[in-house]
């Protein structure tokens, strides 16, 4: 997919007319924490309905990418576009200008995220956790939100847990509720941040199988950070290897996992896969 140019009078994220607009686009993105530069001159695109997995060692910037898309972290420089629209900043007269909070919030409603640590509201029941955002952010009726929530609890295998509180659930059950909560917003983009890293090994497959079903039955765009290489290979259209805040290489999962071009990728996969 061609990289957009910052032509006069056009946004940096405006895709060429011959190509579809990427649903996610990073243009010259930089992110620093103090003197620690985590991402620098990062450029990549994710097409609508594409499932892209970010792999690489801890500290390589993968989770920061998701948090920037979710606006949980602020960009140091550059631009992020959601369906061609600036998420946090746009370019005006050669300067970075913040978008309005209202516009940022509107774009955020199109994005869902499932975190490592579940992040459920402990004072709310499972059902209340799932219906909170659809009612108060999307403006859905309580009746419709509850019906959707029950359907999603069936989908994740927890129909009997609607009135339970998170503290009474296992880690695997809490993560399944977190997936249902994210899907309740009907997101166009789903961000998955190491969703199995805090789980006991015996429940990892249960959670991954639910996400495989989501991938197989919807056209939601997914940006995934995981160390579960089998899952990455199964669900991804593209895999991007990160190290030191840079893309080392990218390509279809079969190529990355069976015939990577870069020695850094080979060493990482050897360490993770044990061969």
Automatic annotation (TrEMBL):
InterPro entries: AAA+_ATPase, ABC_ATPase_HisP-typ, ABC_transporter-like_ATP-bd, ABC_transporter-like_CS, Ectoine_EhuA, MetN_ABC_transporter-like, P-loop_NTPase. GO terms for molecular function: ABC-type amino acid transporter activity; ATP binding; ATP hydrolysis activity. It is a peripheral membrane protein. Residues 24-269 form the ABC transporter domain. Its main location: membrane. PROSITE patterns: ABC_TRANSPORTER_1, ABC_TRANSPORTER_2. Pfam families: ABC_tran. GO terms for cellular component: plasma membrane. It is found in: Cell membrane. Keywords: Amino-acid transport, ATP-binding, Cell membrane, Membrane, Nucleotide-binding, Transport. Belongs to the ABC transporter superfamily. This is Ectoine/hydroxyectoine ABC transporter ATP-binding protein EhuA. It comes from Nesterenkonia sphaerica. The lineage of its organism: Bacteria, Bacillati, Actinomycetota, Actinomycetes, Micrococcales.
